[in-house]
Each structure stands twice: as C-alpha cells, then as structure tokens.
Amino acid sequence: MDKVSSLWRLYLSKPLVFFLLIAITLSSVPSAYARSGCFEPVSNIYEWLSPAVVFISAVDISSTKRTERVSNVIGSGFVIEKDGIVLTNSHVVFGLRSINVTMDNGDTVDAIVIGVDPVLDLAVLRVPVPPEGLTTIPLGDSERMRVGDQVMAIGNPFGLEQTLTVGVVSGINRILSVAPLSLSIPLIQTDTAINPGSSGGPLLNRCGEAIGITTAILGAAQNISFALPINLAKKYLPQLIKKGRVIRPWIGVSGKLINKDLEDIFNLSVVDGFLVETVDPGSPADHVGIQEGSLPVSVGGMDFILGGDIITAINDHPLRDEEMLESLLNTLKVGDKLNLAVFHDGDSRNVKLSLIERPVLSGDLAPRDQNLFLLPMRHRTYQY
Prior knowledge:
- The protein is an alpha+beta fold.
- The protein has nine helices and 25 strands.
C-alpha cells in the first residue's frame, strides 16, 4: 500500500513526471522477440541462409512393377556443418539410387547417405566441400517456440530452387500417422506453405536458426504443414553419424492402452493395460507366443482390434497411462530381459523375452509425397 500511496501522491503533485515514469517502466518490459534478440528482417535471413539450402534429386526403381519402374524423387536439405553434413528427410533419400545434390553455386554433386532413420523421417548426407566453402544454418531450440511465432521455410517446391515462404507456428505437439512408431512423435504445425519438393528443408525462426525440418502436409487442406522439431533431430544426430542408424529395442507389438471401463462396451473380460492388436512376424513377442487381435470394432470413431492379449505390466511396472508406458519403454535397450504380465480371456500368465534391435519395417516407410492425415489424440496406436 505504501508504494501505491507514493505513486498517488506523485500523480497529484507532478503528473508529468508520473506519466514519464510509467512510460519508462512499460518500455523496459521485453517482448518475446526482444528477449531472444530475434529482430532480423526476413529478407536478410533469406540472403544469409538460402545458400545453405540444397536441392536433392534421386532415382526410385521399383522391383515390383513391370512398367514405369523408374521415377524421380526431389526434395530439399540444408547444410549444418562446414565439412559437408546435410540434414534432410528420410523419405527424400531412403532406398533410392543416384542421390545428387545441387549446391548454391550451381554444381551438382554426388551425395553419400551416412545415416538414415525412417521412423523419425530423418537422414544425414555428406557432400563435397567446394573451394569457396559452405554456408551453414545453425540449429536452434524448438522447445522455445510458441504458437504465433513467425517462421519461414526455404526449400525447393516442385523443383523451384531456394523458394521462401513465411508463416507462423500454428500448433505444437501434433500427432501424425507417418509411421507406427512416429505416432508418438510431436510435430510442429505451421501455416507456412510447404509443397512436394520442400521436404527436408529448414523451418527457421527470426533469429535465423533452424527450429524444424519441413516434413509433411495435410492432404485436402489449405496451409496446414508440419515439421520435425529440431531438438529431436539434434538428439539423434550423433548416433546417425556414428552408427548410420538409430538403434532401438524391439518387442514387436502394436496396440492401444485401454482400461476396465471398456468392459461394459465390449462385453468382454477386460483389464487395464496395453491391448495387443498386432504382432510383428519374427519379433520377440511372436517367438514367445503373444497373441494378436482378430476382431475389428469401432466405438465412437475409435478403432480397436479385439481378441488379443492385454499386457498389464512390464517388469512389475503396471501399464496404466501413456506417460507411464512411454517413460518405462524409453529406459529399455537392446539385450534387456523383460517379464510381461499378460491377461487373456480371464486368465493371467507371465512371459519372458529378450529385446533385440528393431529392424526397418514396411510400415515405417512414409509415402514420398507425404500427404498425411491427423489421428485422434485419444487411444493412439503404438508400436514397440
């Protein structure tokens, strides 16, 4: 109250000084951009960083078609290291031949794929370093993004090299049906225009930092695009460069978390846990006899495949919610031994298995055009 009284007395005695003090106080409150120093004009950012954005072209040869077996795939990428390291999407290069990169100086060079992960849709290439050197794009912090922040993309839509588009962050933590495992990967939504050929290019903030990798567009929509958060790429970059892949443990099941509340809906014996809907052939789960579902059911727009095992606990840790499930599975590694508590049709049993490295599965391979559709957030399907 003393401060309020002092301000009131100042206002009555010296109103001009009072309003000057208020103006100075308000002007000292930093905006979001002021705090981060992101005031660079978009045109300057484009001028500085567009030389780091490359055009990628590759040849796709089908082993199953009798005609039209050869097609061309185009995409984008961006240089992140002076020694020629280029970041792009997996679907731009995975399984393709004759991968060429056109640099800013117009030279087209052969690229070497040094690491690729279809689950994250992430790939790392190496290109020769020209005599004049390479422009690089710094990697920012995607955790600092907020809805409404201005962003820009530089890419090669339909082969139009180094095209700039501008928009805002429209949403965060969006879940897409890119591939089974990536159902739990949160993506950045933006209204920045992204088109075929833009995939693999940088999504930039006003500091000129890459905060995402443009990855997908929503089919039949206007200006709904998605980017892989750069923090996720930074997490796995060392492993991709060193190992050439991301090493994951593999159980070999996909399904949904359910609870006993569904018992009345399904008229089946149900417990809290992970409903196994499918089992991957040749997986550890397959070898120990985990049963998959066989009865497709749709309830309130949500699809279930019933009749399979329900895993109620892993190593005595009950599976009650998504956070608990993901936290537990993130601690697992290749070679770990698991003890699964399994429920089926009123009976319970324990199953032991050993985790092996997860191979690339057919469901990991996202479509080349990346026209995708949103999934409901409730009862998502997971694969482990």
